[in-house]
Amino acid sequence: MLRLRVAAKETYAAALGLLDGQTAIDSLSLRIAIRRLDPSTSQPQVVVTTYSGGAHCCTLTAAITQQADGSWLPIVVGQEDGDFGYEYLDPVGDGYSVLVSTDGSFNYHFSSYAGSFPPNRIERLAGSAIEDVTRDPRYRPLLRERLRKMEQDYGVGPRNEPNGFLAGWVAQKALVGELDSAWRAMLGGYVAYPEMFSITICAIDKRVWPKTGYPMCPRDQELRVPFPEALALFLVDGNYITPEQSTKVGYDTVKILADRASAIAIATAKYEERMSQTWYLMTRAWECVQASTPSSPADAIRFDRANGKEDTVHVLQSDETGKPIAVRVDTPMPGNLVSLLTFYRGADSCERERQRRERELENLK
């Protein structure tokens, strides 16, 4: 239980149970500090920091701060990777600390965690809100200092993942007004398509991805994106640069996204048409999966015939044109056994059968 007293009077009390909403308090490393974060309050803030444990995760910070009416309110400041959390610095010497961290969205995006060099983020507490003040001119010297540290750290380590460094470095340079020179340097130093961290997009819309298991873009529909284009889009999306700045360095992100959307729409229509003629099988777990070996009833018949077996074929269902959409292939096996494979043309026909079976099972309960 956290109890807060001001002038010997208890003004706030709360259980410290679940700062992160899910982790029991006995598994957390808990730190409590008194810090001046908000210049509008007469009293400093109580900062509570918890660490869940585990590699790169997760430090959650909350600040209990005084409101205008004298009451105290807990504010979730944010979650950071690692076990250190925020830095509390007063770079302008006004007696109030800002919260300095890094942008975790860069981690693992262009390189491994160890190879990532995320740019800095500077925030401050203002009433009940956390404001991003990274671009406040007063903090530019701090950003330049961290830029030098970033370059120094990269210079003394192995340089086997340049894209991870360059992504964060260009972002940090953009924050201090040096995008153009950084972009030119990046163009001369990046790796085109790194083996593990090549940026890809899916050529087809997510709504037509295979519906079984964890939704993933089909491997034959993945398209690799050149690193400079991927970086330009990422920096615009993260508000490190504007679309106009991106266009100036050679990447009109508005046009890129429009062209990409048009290409995806065309590719999705073609994919849907092709997949509507593709054969599917239903697993014992009642999941519809694309048939591969064999890939169709005809493929199964040819294979069995080559091995001296003559199949019996049953057309279970046809469409309005008479084309079979559900076909069972019975293959004779030793000992008067029969192997049964039922093929469904298109994922929709397989899905309809799966749902029918589920309804039958539900009616038996």
Question: Would you kindly provide a written description of the structure presented here, covering whatever features stand out?
Answer:
The protein is an alpha+beta fold. The protein has a domain of 87 residues. It has 8 helices and 17 strands. The strands form 5 sheets. Strands 14-13-17-16-15 form a 5-stranded antiparallel β-sheet, sandwiched between helices. Strand 9 and strand 10 form a beta hairpin. Helix 2 packs antiparallel against helix 3. The longest helix has 24 residues. The radius of gyration is 29 Å and the shape is elongated. About 3% of the residues have low confidence.
Topology of helices and strands:
Elements: E1 2-6, E2 9-14, E3 29-35, E4 45-51, E5 59-66, E6 72-80, E7 87-89, E8 98-102, E9 120-126, E10 129-132, H1 140-156, H2 162-175, H3 179-187, E11 200-202, E12 222-224, H4 227-237, H5 243-248, H6 253-276, E13 279-282, E14 288-290, H7 297-306, E15 312-318, E16 324-333, E17 337-345, H8 347-364
Antiparallel strand pairs: 1-2, 3-4, 4-5, 5-6, 7-8, 8-9, 9-10, 11-12, 13-14, 13-17, 15-16, 16-17
Helix pairs in contact: 1-2, 2-3
